[in-house]
Amino acid sequence: MIIARLKQGFVFLFGKYHKKNDFLVKKILSNDEFNIFDKMSEYDKIHSFNLYNFVKRSEILKDDENYLKLALLHDCGKDNFSLYRRVKKVIIGDKNIEKHPIKSFEKLKDINIEVAKLALNHHNKTDDKKMKEFQKLDDK
User: Fold this and answer.
1) Are 103 and 87 in contact (CB under 8 A)?
2) Cα separation, 89 vs 25, whole angstroms
3) Which residue among 73, 84, 107, 119 is least packed, with the fewest CB closer than 10 Å?
4) How confident is the model at residue 96, as a pLDDT?
5) C-alpha distance from residue 80 to each of 58, 65, 66, 123 (Å)
6) Distance (Å, rounded) from C-alpha 19 to C-alpha 72?
């Protein structure tokens, strides 16, 4: 877990989202959905695009368009939080970051209600096989 968190920190500090990936992203997202994705922070776009690739390879999720979209949009409710705020969230919690599923739902509900509902619940404990798989991949 510590190694994964350190990797996240390095990606936050030094990672670069490659705009060439937008070609693939635009194939799965509608224009309105892409506009939301495009406004996400650099780190959240990197994380979401990586998660999208994991979902595409998942036997459980790869054929579910809503989960492919969820991978790209699940964190759209996060503001452009600093590394400090993100570390604080991991160590002691941060109410604003913890509210990102609600903010994601609000951004998505009028565009794609199914993906909005999935985004709202993507951190909740569940027995749903697909959501459990998504959560496992999101934690990589």
Assistant:
1) no
2) 28
3) 84
4) 82
5) 29, 27, 25, 19
6) 14
Residue among 8, 68, 71, 74 nearest 43 (CA): 8
How many distinct structural domains can be found in the chain?
1
- The Cα 42–Cα 118 span in angstroms is 22
pLDDT of residue 1: 62
> Which positions of the chain have pLDDT values less than 70?
1, 5, 9-10, 13, 83
Domain encompassing residue 56: 2-138
pLDDT at position 45, please? 97
* Residue partners of 64: CB distance under 8 A and separation at least 6: 130
Distance CA 55, CA 38 (A): 20
pLDDT of residue 23: 97
What's the pTM value of the predicted model, to 2 decimals? 0.90
In sequence order, what are the residues at sequence separation of 6 or more whose Cβ sits closer than 8 angstroms to the Cβ of residue 92?
none
